[in-house]
Amino acid sequence: MGTYLRKNWAVVVLLMVLAIGMVLPLATGISAPGFYFEVLLGGLMSGVLYSLVALGLVLIFKASGVFNFAQGAMVLFAALAVARMSEVMPLPLAFILAIVVMAALAWVIERLVLRHLVNQDAVVLLMATLGVAFFLDGFGQTVWGSNIYQIDTGLPKTPVLVFENIFAGGILINTEDLVAAAAAGLLVLALAIFFQKTPTGRALRAVADDHQAAQSIGIPLNRIWVIVWTVAGFVALVAGVVWGSKLGVQFSLSLIALKALPVVILGGFTSVPGAILGGLIIGVGEKFAEVFLGPILVRQFDLAGGGIENWFAYMLALLFLLVRPEGLFGEKHIDRV
C-alpha cells in the first residue's frame, strides 16, 4: 500500500484535500453536511474551468516546450470579441465568428512569430509568448474597447435549492455555473481524447520531444503550431465566455486565467490527466481554504480575513515545486554525465 501511494501522488493529494476539507468544518464549528457539499461542488465547478485553461497551456507546452504566458491575454481577447460582437448580432453567431478570429490570430502568430523561432532555445520562445501577451492585452482593448462589458448567455443566474430531502436546508447550486462546468468538462474530455488517440495528438508529443527529429520524419511543424494555437484559442474563448458572463469582461480576466499556472505545476506541464486533476485540486482546495480555513486564521491571529482564495493556489504550487517539481504526473528528467 505504501509503495502504491508513493507512486500515485495524485491519489495522495486528492485524499489529503478531501480529508482536510472534512476536518476544517468541525474546527470552525460548521457541522451541516449540506453546506460542506455546497462548498465542495463550488470548488469542483471552478476546478473544471481551471483545468480547461490549463489544457491550453499543456497543449502549447507539448508543441513548443515552453509555457505560454499569452494564454490569459487570449482569454481576455476572446471574451472581448464575443462581448462586443454580441451587441450587434446573436450570441451563437458572435461565438462562431470569435472562433474564426482566434483561428486567424493563431495563423498570424505562427506566421509572424513562431515560424522564425524554430529550434531556438526555450527562453527565446518564452519571451516571444510574453511579447504576444502584452500585444494582445493592448491590441484587444484598442480594437474592442477597454470598458467592462457583459456577455448574456441567457442562463438563469439565480441559485436553485436541491437535495432538500437528503440534507437539512438543501444545497444551493448556481444553474449557470453548473451548465458552464458541464460544458467545460465535455470539452476537457474531448481534448484529452484528442491528445491521446488522434494522429495529430501523437504528432504533438513528437514535436514536443524534439523539433528537429519531428521535422526529419515528415511532421509539418508549422501546421502543428497553427493547430495547437487554434485549439488553445478555442479553449481561451470558452473560458472567456464563461468567466465573462459571471464577472463581466474586464482586464482582470487575464489574471484569473493565470490561475492555470499552479494547476499545471501540480499536474505536470506535459500531462493531460495532470491538468484535469490539478484543476480539481486547486478549485476544491481554494474554496475549502476561503470558507473553512479563513475563519480559523482570523480567530487565531486576529487578521482582517479574506483574500485566501487569491493566494492559496500559488502557495500550494510553491510547496509542490519544493517537494515534487515535475508535478503529479510529470516525467522526471535525469541528466547522465
Written account of the structure:
With 337 residues, the protein is mostly helical. The chain has a domain at 51-258. 72% of the residues lie in helices and 2% in strands. It contains 14 helices and two strands, in the order ααααααββαααααααα. The chain has helices spanning 2-7, 9-27, 33-64, 71-85, 91-112, 122-144, 175-197, 199-209, 211-216, 221-247, 252-257, 260-267, 272-301, 308-323, and strands at 159-162, 171-174. Strands 1-2 form a two-stranded antiparallel ribbon. Strand 1 and strand 2 (171-174) form a beta hairpin. It starts with a helix and ends in a 14-residue tail after the last helix. Residues 1-7 have low confidence and may be disordered.
Specify the helix fraction band: over 70%
Strand content: under 5%
Largest sheet: 2 strands, antiparallel
Decide which structural class fits the backbone: mainly alpha
Query: How are the strands ordered across the major sheet?
Result: 1-2
Q: What's a concise summary of this model?
A:
The chain has helices spanning 2-7, 9-27, 33-64, 71-85, 91-112, 122-144, 175-197, 199-209, 211-216, 221-247, 252-257, 260-267, 272-301, 308-323, and strands at 159-162, 171-174.
Q: Which structural traits does this protein have?
A:
two-stranded antiparallel ribbon, 337 residues, globular, 2% strand, mainly alpha
